[in-house]
């Protein structure tokens, strides 16, 4: 016991020391960069081959603050519409409400540095060097200034007299991105074509969905679980219906939240399932919840999430099932359990469903990280910091007998070989406008890698990474533009399809009508976020789309 206490004290001391050193370095950076000798960007130069166009920062300042066209900006004004000029003026002074320490913490993290490397290829210093360090310092200094972090203030704090925009590199990146978008659109169209084909083949019609909640009342219990073996403590909300069906133990569904979320993010679905007779367990993963992101932004954590979370998250669920089995064996059936997760929680669900970590695929994908547009790789590639010799690759729990994965990350961490190991009914849910875990590489293509006879791919057109999330007080605020269409639409899809998916195979209240099929998806679809559901997709045809 003394060793454990000493180890904990060492960890706390080491963490505090790292945090103190970072903050000290951060303050020294601010004091050095804000000294009078520091340069500020005076000019923006855009290079395209032998051509060069220049624009003074002063002309942008005058326009933003006074609305007057001066210098080079007046010369270029005819190239822009009135609306574009108004957008430019507003945008130059638009302030991001974020603390300088939060900016520093993120851009010193693994994910932040990968973003800087990519942007630094286009935004360069006067000497033509990558803008990596200059961009980071300008962001921190602008956030720390009285005016705050605005595009104009970023230019004013850029630590060289000239900012060079490599337009050739920028146009090349735009060209590559256009190809990625075009291919994704073709794949999405293929899914939608299959959806229409399945509707015609089924030849079924349905009323407008499941109306309202179920008939069961329920209670919520709040548990604190302590896994001494892993020295890990985490809370769990357990939703328990007050009645059972035919005096049978309650069927159980586990919900795993995503990175930066918490137990309340999918509380709406937990309550909904409980009203139909399911017991629902919602754990909070301490290394990847909202508090972890807040700690990062406040300087108490060094990265978005520790790489060990790839292992700890599935083990949290396994430990949770052990504890429920020990405490509620007469009330809850833990031999056949459903799981649903979103984003990092979807990874968790698939790992427990049998998908195996694949370090070979991960290594290959992460070597091309700097040229990839797949944002989820920033998280997936963190797993390379795990020692492959001692890291378990199979985290399957045989008690998990069905899984729903919303916006999962799969392509590198599992790959085709890892995904093919899943042997239980599985549903992948995707958003066509998801920039975090893009639909084609992370859900549509991996859907074809599943070898199980019962599999579903759900596509929400215009859906984003946040379309199914409920806003919670503890989560990091998300801009409305990133959320996309009304999340209540996506939440309703999850409630109805999720209920049908789980009630088909577990002892719970089965809705009076509906089936997990294309026709039913068509009956509940909404114009703002059209819904598709398919059970098969031509792998050969899809591979022709994604192969350069």
UniProtKB/TrEMBL annotation:
Domain of life of the native organism: Bacteria
GO MF term (any one): 1-alkyl-2-acetylglycerophosphocholine esterase activity
UniProt GO BP: lipid catabolic process
Keywords, ordered alphabetically: Hydrolase, Lipid degradation, Lipid metabolism
The keyword Lipid metabolism is assigned to this record: yes
Start and end residues of each DUF1400 domain: 40-166
Pfam family, one: PAF-AH_p_II
Gene3D superfamilies assigned: alpha/beta hydrolase
Record keyword Nucleotide-binding present: no
Protein name: DUF1400 domain-containing protein
